[in-house]
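How it folds
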Amino acid sequence: MKAKQLIGSLIAASLIISSVYAVNTDVDETQLGLRKVDIYTEDTAVPNGTNYHTEAPGTSKRFDRAYTNAPPMIPHDISDLGEIDKNNNACIGCHMPDVAKSMGATPIPKSHLTNMRPAVSVDNDDNLKAESDDKIIKKDLHGQLWQGRYNCTACHAPQTTGALNVANTFKPSYTDKKGQKHKNKSYLLDELDIGVQVGNGL
């Protein structure tokens, strides 16, 4: 009797599982993704395109930072500013601290005017070795842009006004009152070594 009940239960469970995982053949494959096109070819996959803000520098509204010390987004058009390299950077013409205020621009923070790389030495096998592995170096460059930060668009990006297939519901979040107060300013240099201090038990 118990064996019959067990077999009956197994059959019932099998039927329930089969019904849950049954394939619905009424759904067309072109309706499975966000693009709503043939999933076996890219020929009909046309992106929505990117429509960056076209406001001229100095006329656009700044975006709030996404989180404490987040790199600010670029709110203006950068299409005519040319390529950025270490010898040619149109961004610093407006954003260096000594001219930013008169240009109505966000000034480059002190962290970008500070060398963060530790001093290195070369061992007998020509390998570079940092002289200090557990200390963050902060060498003030006295108003000069640190070349480790010359490529602005590595962290700062313009914003597109194009439609999103999936809405972005992210809201800026700040972990402390200082972050909320300075949501459009950076105080990264003041707190740069917090992780190092915690890792070293300081």
Observations:
- The first helix runs from residue 2 to 20.
